[in-house]
Specification:
By secondary structure, this protein is mainly alpha-helical. It is 74% helix and 0% strand. The chain has one domain: Up-down Bundle (Amino acid/polyamine transporter I), CATH 1.20.1740. It is built from 17 helices and no strands.
Length: 433
């Protein structure tokens, strides 16, 4: 693969802290504002430890992505790694899986954001205002991203800071209100409960792959990508485990039955700050949408630049050098999904679709290291890459096995349809020559 062929014309303006902020913004989502209750209901007081276990698993995948990203830093992220390691067919399937998962997540988050915005309105106004919120939020973020990567990363940095303020307040004030009796285990969780908790934790900790889609615009990627991943994932893992511990320590058995666990816990500590948790959830959703619309259209852009999707998706804005056509198409589809689906159903599909991509990314990192591929200077050369790849692949296979039969069959159908699309596109390209 020609290392920077699909990145011609892009501006490398994303530094390590910019990329780390984008990763944190993508990973720290609305789930942390509701997940503690679901986890407590499934595995009780073991949830903080489960977050650390989940962080270990996702950390193994992150190591592989850091290794691969330092070797093949290109637009499309994992698509570029997998293509370089296993060829254009595998790369195309990986790219579509990544984009498919991201656009589902974008639609689901936009739906949840709109539902939160209209929850207090009179019933006759809910539906029309919901449409306005979805179209307005995604449309505004699309315009910001079309205006250039520098402007978009500034917005991401700002929303990342804003979403972390309520969580920081929760940790600081809540730490002193923990009751040790609420942290005592009462009963061993069931295997079914452990399985559901694992899926939720992995979903809550995923999202780094979204930010890496903009690797073609990262400054000194061989150093920046691994550094940003380490900063972001370690910070998020510790934050999540701490929040789960505090919520359990304050609410105890009531945590499993709460619809807004952080807000309910804060109400017991400082009732006046309960609203801050609700606002934090809304800002978090909006921030994730910003990162998603910045990064995911670069997958379409990369595939189009390689001739695997219509060429117009690979066009850059003449003034801002952004893939404006890809941004508009991605945003339009996300709006359609948000208007017709719910957060729960779209999030489940998104989480399942990302598992085979993680498997392919781990395998690609090992293959690229074995072949000593390095397109942008000295790569990471992580000493324990092989164990990390084994842990990542085995964990994602377990995640897929925990899904329902219908979901697994649907995932296989997506993989088959992607392969068929590649064959048809290849034949069309040959016929034009």
């Amino acid at each position: 693969m020609e290392g920077h062929r699909r990145d011609a014309g892009l501006v490398r303006a994303v530094g390590p802290w910019d990329l780390a902020a984008s990763i944190v913004n993508c990973v720290v989502g609305a789930s942390i504002f509701v997940a503690p209750a679901v986890l407590a209901g499934n595995i009780g007081t073991l949830a903080p430890l489960a977050f650390l276990l989940g962080a270990f698993v996702v950390g193994a995948v992150a190591i592989c992505f850091a290794e691969a990203g330092s070797r093949v830093p290109t637009s499309g992220g994992a698509y570029g790694y997998v293509e370089a390691a296993f060829g254009p067919l595998a790369g195309f399937i990986a790219g579509l899986l990544l984009w498919f998962s991201n656009v589902l997540a974008c639609g689901g988050i936009a739906a949840a954001f709109a539902d939160m915005m209209v929850r207090t309105l009179p019933p006759p106004l809910m539906a029309p205002v919901r449409v306005v919120v979805i179209v307005g939020a995604i449309g505004a973020l699309a315009l910001v991203n079309i205006g250039g990567v520098a402007r978009a990363t500034w917005l991401i940095n700002a929303t990342t800071l804003l979403k972390l303020i309520p969580l920081a307040v929760f940790v600081v004030l809540g730490a002193g209100a923990i009751h040790s009796a609420n942290l005592v285990a009462t009963a061993a969780p069931s295997m079914e409960g452990v399985g559901r908790a694992l899926i939720l934790i992995l979903f809550a900790l995923s999202g780094m792959e979204i930010s890496l889609c903009a690797s073609g615009e990262v400054v000194r990627p061989a150093r920046t990508i691994p550094r940003a991943l380490a900063i972001a994932m370690l910070s998020v893992a510790l934050l999540y485990a701490t929040i789960q511990l505090i919520a359990q320590g304050i609410l105890g058995a009531a945590l499993a039955h709460s619809n807004a666990p952080l807000a309910d816990a804060m109400a017991r500590v400082a009732p006046g700050l309960q609203l801050l948790m609700v606002i934090g959830a809304a800002v978090s959703m909006f921030g994730i949408l910003g990162s998603e619309i910045l990064c995911s259209p670069r997958i379409l852009y990369g595939l189009a630049r390689d001739g695997l999707l219509p060429r117009m998706l690979g066009r850059l804005h003449t003034k801002h050098h952004s893939p404006h056509i890809a941004i508009l198409c991605h945003s339009a589809l996300a709006i359609g999904l948000a208007l017709t689906g719910t957060f729960a159903e779209l999030a489940v599909l998104s989480g399942l679709a990302i598992a085979p991509l993680y498997i392919a990314g781990c395998a690609a990192a090992w293959m690229l290291a074995r072949r000593q591929v390095a397109l942008a200077g000295e790569p990471l050369n992580f000493r324990w890459l092989v164990p990390a790849a084994v842990i990542g692949i085995a964990s994602m296979l377990t995640l897929i096995a925990l899904a329902s039969r219908v979901q697994i069959l649907g995932l296989l159908a997506i993989l088959g349809a992607s392969a068929l699309a590649y064959v048809l596109q290849s034949r069309t390209a040959l016929a034009r020559r």
